[in-house]
Amino acid sequence: MESIYHRISHLVSCNAVVVFTISGCSMCHVVKQLLFGLGVGPTIVELDRDVYGRHIHTLLLHLAGADGKQHAVPAVFVGGKFLGGIEALMACHIHGTLVPLLKDAGALWL
């Protein structure tokens, strides 16, 4: 599990925006469409198509919180930091903080 953690840490630190998804997940689709619509080209990892997807999913569950209220995917990282799932992303968008966050991370140049 530690090597998975290092792999994820490297991935999110080297890319402005990383989204972990599962193909066919409607909430994952919404997250991707919002980011694409804003002009962001996120790095997308589809866990059901990744060799280590099951292990990454377990790690994301721990990161999202063990209370059972949060889902592991979609999981959004911006600027090397865990932003959260669709609720956090939409809250940032509604409150007008998402675009500045994306600019600070280097994902937008506008």
TrEMBL record:
Residues 17-82 form the Glutaredoxin domain. SUPFAM superfamilies: Thioredoxin-like. It holds the Pfam family Glutaredoxin. GO terms for cellular component: cytoplasm. InterPro entries: GlrX-like_pln_2, Glutaredoxin, Glutaredoxin_subgr, Thioredoxin-like_sf. The keyword Cytoplasm applies. CDD domains: GRX_GRXh_1_2_like. The keyword Transmembrane does not apply. Keywords: Cytoplasm, Redox-active center. It comes from the Eukaryota. Transmembrane segments: none annotated. It is found in: Cytoplasm. PANTHER family: GLUTAREDOXIN (PTHR10168). Belongs to the glutaredoxin family. CC-type subfamily. This is Glutaredoxin-C8. It comes from Abeliophyllum distichum.
